[in-house]
C-alpha cells in the first residue's frame, strides 16, 4: 500500500494534484459543515416562510453572479494554467479579467435597482436583495480562476474557511428572532467580501502580481474568450434559478422554502464531486495538449468512478432520508421528505454536468457545448412551467430531473462522436 502511494506521488504534477484535491476537499467539507450548522438554526428561528424569502432573493442574485463571473472560472483558469510561467502574461490576464468583472458588477447593480423598484414583489423587501448583492461583490473580488490556474487551491481553502467561519459564528450571535432575518444576507455577504479582499492581498504579496491598466484591444480579447461559457451559464440559470423564481411567482414563500431545504440537501451530497472536478480541470487542460490518449483514459476512469459513487450516495441517502430531514428542519416533515426522495435521483447526474462541460471547454468544442445548452433550455421551458402550474413543487422537481438526464445524455454522445472523429483522423494519417 505504501509503495502504491509513493508511486502516486513520484512527480511534482501528481503531488500538486493531490495537494489541490486535498485542499478543495477540505473546503468542500467546510462548505457542508458551516451551512449544516446554520441551516437548521435559521429554519427554526426564521420559519420556513422567511427562509423561503431569503432563498428567493439568493436565486434572484444568482443571475448577477453569472453576469459578473462571465465564465472566467473556466476560460481564465485555462489561460493562467497555460501561461503560468510568463509573469507579464499573467499580469495581463489578471488585470483584464478583473477590469471586466468590475464593469459587469456595476452593470449588474444597475439592473438589480431597475428590477427591485419596478415590481412590487421585489420592492416590498428591497433591502434583502441589496444586502444579498454583497455576495456578487465578494465573488467579483475573489479570483478563484487565478488560484485554480496556478494550481494553488490551498489559498482558496484557507481564505474561504476562515472568513466564512467568522461570519457563521456571527449568525448565532446576531440572529436571535424572526425579525432579524435581514441580518443573514448582510453577514453572508461580508464573509464573501472579506475573503475577496484578502485574496487580492495574497496575490500581490505571494505571487507578485499587481493590477495594471490594459488597452481596449486586450480587454476585448478576454471578453470574446469568455463569451461562449458566459452564454452557457445563462442557459444553465434558465433551468435552475429561473425555475425557483417561477416557483416563487406561481406559489408562495413557504413552498419555495420547502424546495430550498430539499435542494440544499441534494446539492450538499452531490457537491462531494466538485473538489475532484475543480482539481482535475487545470491538470487535464495541460494533459490534453500533451497526450490525447492519456487524456481519454483518465476521462473514462473518472466517469466510471463517479457513476459508482453517485449510485452509492443515492441509496444511502434514500435509506436515511427521514433522519436527514429531521436534522435539517428540526421535524419529521412529510412534505420535505417526499420531495427529497424524488430529488435524490438528481445526484446520479450531478458529477457529470461539470465533468462533461470541462472536457468540451478543454477541447475547444464551444459550438457543441452551446447547442446542448440551447436544447436544454427549450426542453426546460416546455416542461417545467406547466408542471409547476399543475403539480406545484413536485412537478418542478420531476421536470428538472428530465432536463438533467437529457443534457448529460446529449453531452455523452457528443463526446463519443468527438473521440471517434479523432481516432478516424489519426488512422487516416497512418
Short description:
The protein starts with a helix and ends with a helix. The chain has one domain (11-429).
| Count of structural domains | 1
Instruction: Report the uncertain regions.
Output: 1-9
Task: Output mean pLDDT.
Answer: 81
Number of helices: 20
Shape: globular
Question: Topology of this protein?
Answer:
Blueprint: H1 2-8, H2 12-69, H3 72-82, H4 87-116, H5 120-123, H6 126-132, H7 134-141, H8 144-149, H9 153-174, H10 183-206, H11 216-238, H12 241-250, H13 253-270, H14 274-290, H15 292-319, H16 321-329, H17 334-343, H18 350-362, H19 366-391, H20 393-429
Helix pairs in contact: 2-4, 2-7, 2-9, 2-11, 2-12, 2-13, 2-14, 3-4, 3-11, 3-14, 4-7, 4-11, 7-10, 9-10, 11-19, 12-19, 13-17, 14-18, 15-18, 18-20, 19-20
Describe the protein.
This protein is mostly helical and 430 residues long. It has one domain. 86% of the residues lie in helices and 0% in strands. The chain has 20 helices and no strands. The protein has helices spanning 2-8, 12-69, 72-82, 87-116, 120-123, 126-132, 134-141, 144-149, 153-174, 183-206, 216-238, 241-250, 253-270, 274-290, 292-319, 321-329, 334-343, 350-362, 366-391, 393-429. The protein is globular, with a radius of gyration of 22 Å. Mean pLDDT is 81; it is low at 1-9.
Any descriptors?
20 helices; mainly alpha; 430 residues
Amino acid at each position: 500500500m505504501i509503495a502504491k502511494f509513493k508511486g502516486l506521488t513520484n512527480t511534482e504534477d501528481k503531488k500538486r494534484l493531490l495537494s489541490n484535491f486535498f485542499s478543495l476537499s477540505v473546503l468542500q467539507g467546510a462548505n457542508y459543515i458551516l451551512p449544516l450548522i446554520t441551516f437548521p438554526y435559521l429554519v427554526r428561528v426564521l420559519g420556513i416562510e422567511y427562509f423561503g424569502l431569503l432563498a428567493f432573493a439568493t436565486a434572484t442574485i444568482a443571475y448577477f453572479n453569472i453576469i459578473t463571473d462571465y465564465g472566467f472560472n473556466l476560460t481564465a483558469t485555462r489561460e493562467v494554467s497555460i501561461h503560468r510561467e510568463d509573469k507579464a502574461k499573467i499580469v495581463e490576464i489578471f488585470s483584464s479579467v478583473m477590469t471586466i468583472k468590475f464593469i459587469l458588477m456595476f452593470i449588474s447593480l444597475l439592473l438589480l435597482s431597475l428590477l427591485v423598484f419596478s415590481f412590487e414583489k421585489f420592492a416590498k423587501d428591497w433591502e434583502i436583495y441589496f444586502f444579498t448583492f454583497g455576495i456578487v461583490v465578494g465573488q467579483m473580488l475573489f479570483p478563484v480562476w487565478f488560484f485554480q490556474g496556478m494550481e494553488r487551491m490551498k489559498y482558496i481553502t484557507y481564505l474561504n474557511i476562515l472568513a466564512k467561519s467568522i461570519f457563521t459564528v456571527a449568525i448565532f450571535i446576531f440572529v436571535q428572532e424572526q425579525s432579524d432575518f435581514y441580518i443573514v444576507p448582510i453577514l453572508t455577504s461580508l464573509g464573501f467580501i472579506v475573503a475577496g479582499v484578502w485574496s487580492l492581498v495574497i496575490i500581490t504579496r505571494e505571487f507578485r502580481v499587481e493590477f495594471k491598466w490594459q488597452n481596449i484591444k486586450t480587454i476585448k480579447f478576454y471578453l470574446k474568450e469568455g463569451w461562449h461559457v458566459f452564454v452557457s451559464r445563462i442557459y444553465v440559470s434558465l433551468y435552475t434559478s429561473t425555475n425557483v423564481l417561477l416557483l416563487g411567482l406561481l406559489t408562495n414563500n413557504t413552498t419555495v422554502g420547502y424546495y430550498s431545504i430539499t435542494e440544499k440537501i441534494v446539492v450538499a451530497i452531490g457537491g462531494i464531486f466538485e473538489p475532484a472536478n475543480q482539481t482535475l480541470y487545470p491538470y487535464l487542460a495541460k494533459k490534453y495538449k500533451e497526450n490525447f490518449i492519456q487524456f481519454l483514459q483518465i476521462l473514462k476512469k473518472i466517469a466510471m468512478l463517479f457513476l459508482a459513487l453517485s449510485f452509492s450516495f443515492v441509496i444511502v441517502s434514500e435509506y436515511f432520508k427521514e433522519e436527514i430531514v429531521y436534522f435539517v428542519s428540526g421535524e419529521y416533515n412529510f412534505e420535505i421528505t417526499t420531495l427529497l426522495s424524488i430529488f435524490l435521483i438528481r445526484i446520479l447526474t450531478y458529477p457529470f454536468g461539470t465533468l462533461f462541460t470541462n472536457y468540451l471547454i478543454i477541447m475547444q468544442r464551444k459550438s457543441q457545448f452551446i447547442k446542448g445548452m440551447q436544447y436544454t433550455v427549450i426542453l426546460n421551458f416546455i416542461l417545467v412551467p406547466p408542471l409547476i402550474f399543475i403539480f406545484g413543487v413536485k412537478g418542478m422537481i420531476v421536470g428538472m430531473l428530465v432536463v438533467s438526464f437529457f443534457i448529460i445524455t446529449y453531452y455523452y454522445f457528443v463526446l463519443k462522436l468527438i473521440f471517434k472523429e479523432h481516432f478516424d483522423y489519426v488512422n487516416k494519417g497512418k
